[in-house]
Protein backbone atom coordinates (compact mmCIF):
# COMPACT_ATOMS: atom_id res chain seq x y z
CA UNK A 1 0.00 0.00 0.00
CA UNK A 2 1.53 3.29 -1.09
CA UNK A 3 1.21 6.43 1.02
CA UNK A 4 0.52 9.75 -0.65
CA UNK A 5 3.21 12.26 0.13
CA UNK A 6 3.05 15.94 -0.78
CA UNK A 7 5.91 17.11 -2.96
CA UNK A 8 8.83 18.44 -0.94
CA UNK A 9 8.40 21.96 -2.29
CA UNK A 10 4.80 22.13 -1.04
CA UNK A 11 5.81 20.72 2.33
CA UNK A 12 8.63 23.24 2.57
CA UNK A 13 6.29 26.10 1.63
CA UNK A 14 3.81 24.99 4.28
CA UNK A 15 6.56 24.71 6.89
CA UNK A 16 7.78 28.25 6.07
CA UNK A 17 4.18 29.49 6.26
CA UNK A 18 3.78 27.99 9.74
CA UNK A 19 7.06 29.53 10.88
CA UNK A 20 6.26 32.94 9.37
CA UNK A 21 2.85 33.13 11.01
CA UNK A 22 4.17 32.12 14.43
CA UNK A 23 2.38 28.77 14.64
CA UNK A 24 5.59 26.81 15.13
CA UNK A 25 6.76 29.10 17.94
CA UNK A 26 3.38 28.99 19.70
CA UNK A 27 3.14 25.22 19.52
CA UNK A 28 6.72 24.81 20.66
CA UNK A 29 6.25 27.09 23.66
CA UNK A 30 3.05 25.30 24.70
CA UNK A 31 4.65 21.88 24.37
CA UNK A 32 7.69 23.04 26.35
CA UNK A 33 5.37 24.36 29.07
CA UNK A 34 3.62 20.97 29.17
CA UNK A 35 6.97 19.17 29.34
CA UNK A 36 8.14 21.39 32.21
CA UNK A 37 5.03 20.74 34.32
CA UNK A 38 6.16 18.92 37.48
CA UNK A 39 2.83 17.07 37.59
CA UNK A 40 1.48 16.27 34.16
CA UNK A 41 -2.18 17.26 33.69
CA UNK A 42 -4.71 14.47 33.23
CA UNK A 43 -5.95 16.06 30.02
CA UNK A 44 -2.97 17.14 27.95
CA UNK A 45 -5.16 18.32 25.08
CA UNK A 46 -7.08 20.67 27.38
CA UNK A 47 -3.77 22.01 28.71
CA UNK A 48 -2.61 22.72 25.15
CA UNK A 49 -5.91 24.42 24.25
CA UNK A 50 -5.82 26.67 27.31
CA UNK A 51 -2.20 27.64 26.78
CA UNK A 52 -2.66 28.26 23.06
CA UNK A 53 -5.48 30.67 23.85
CA UNK A 54 -3.29 32.57 26.29
CA UNK A 55 -0.27 32.47 23.99
CA UNK A 56 -2.17 34.47 21.38
CA UNK A 57 -1.55 37.74 23.18
CA UNK A 58 1.77 38.95 24.39
CA UNK A 59 2.21 40.73 27.69
CA UNK A 60 2.77 44.00 25.84
CA UNK A 61 -0.54 43.55 24.01
CA UNK A 62 -2.35 42.85 27.26
CA UNK A 63 -0.81 45.87 28.97
CA UNK A 64 -1.67 48.11 26.04
CA UNK A 65 -5.26 46.88 26.05
CA UNK A 66 -5.54 47.35 29.81
CA UNK A 67 -4.25 50.91 29.50
CA UNK A 68 -6.72 51.59 26.71
CA UNK A 69 -9.57 50.34 28.91
CA UNK A 70 -8.44 52.64 31.75
CA UNK A 71 -8.22 55.61 29.37
CA UNK A 72 -11.65 54.91 27.90
CA UNK A 73 -13.25 54.55 31.34
CA UNK A 74 -11.78 57.91 32.39
CA UNK A 75 -13.02 59.51 29.18
CA UNK A 76 -16.46 58.00 29.71
CA UNK A 77 -16.60 59.41 33.27
CA UNK A 78 -15.61 62.88 31.99
CA UNK A 79 -18.27 62.73 29.29
CA UNK A 80 -20.92 61.66 31.81
CA UNK A 81 -20.03 64.67 33.99
CA UNK A 82 -20.07 66.98 30.99
CA UNK A 83 -23.44 65.58 29.98
CA UNK A 84 -24.84 66.23 33.47
CA UNK A 85 -23.54 69.82 33.41
CA UNK A 86 -25.04 70.50 30.01
CA UNK A 87 -28.39 69.03 31.03
CA UNK A 88 -28.46 71.18 34.17
CA UNK A 89 -27.70 74.28 32.09
CA UNK A 90 -30.59 73.47 29.79
CA UNK A 91 -32.95 73.16 32.73
CA UNK A 92 -31.85 76.44 34.36
CA UNK A 93 -33.99 79.47 33.62
CA UNK A 94 -32.08 82.02 31.63
CA UNK A 95 -30.95 85.10 33.62
CA UNK A 96 -32.24 88.36 32.26
CA UNK A 97 -34.60 86.73 29.86
CA UNK A 98 -37.17 89.22 28.68
CA UNK A 99 -40.33 88.67 26.77
CA UNK A 100 -40.42 91.35 24.13
CA UNK A 101 -43.30 91.61 21.68
Automatic annotation (TrEMBL):
Alphabetized UniProt keyword annotations: Coiled coil, Nucleus
Taxonomic superkingdom: Eukaryota
Similarity comment: Belongs to the AMY1 family.
Major location category of this protein: nucleus
Gene that encodes the chain: LOC104941897
Protein name: c-Myc-binding protein
Coiled coil start-end: 62-89
Record-annotated membrane-spanning stretches: none
Gene3D superfamilies assigned: 6.10.250.1060
Cellular component aspect of the GO annotation: nucleus
Compartment(s) where it occurs, according to its Swiss-Prot or TrEMBL record: Nucleus
Amino acid sequence: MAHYRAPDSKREQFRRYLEKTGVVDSLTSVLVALYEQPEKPNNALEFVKQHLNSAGQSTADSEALQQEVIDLRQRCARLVEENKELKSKLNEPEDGASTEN
